[in-house]
Amino acid sequence: MQDIVSLDLKSTLKPHVQAMKEKYNQKFHATHREYLKMQLDVTRLEDCVLEKKDEKTSIKTRFDKAQQQYQQEKEVHYRDIILIMRILRLKYFII
After folding, report:
1. Domain positions in the chain
2. pTM recorded for the entire structure
């Protein structure tokens, strides 16, 4: 028991505690760097998602306009076809 009490704690434990503290700090800083990197990745992905949403909205708007124009042209062509058919019927019935 006498040997345990006379043990110089400062010279024996301090280097071990210091080494543990150093190891902890290294691990903490590595983890913190990884956290910051992932946070930056998330921010970049969120920006990319916003850009894609804007792009989708723009494409959807152009698509809707093109579809509306197609419908209008289709209606005009159908009317022209019907008109031509009526003219042809009249022409053949009259002659």
Report:
1. 10-94
2. 0.56
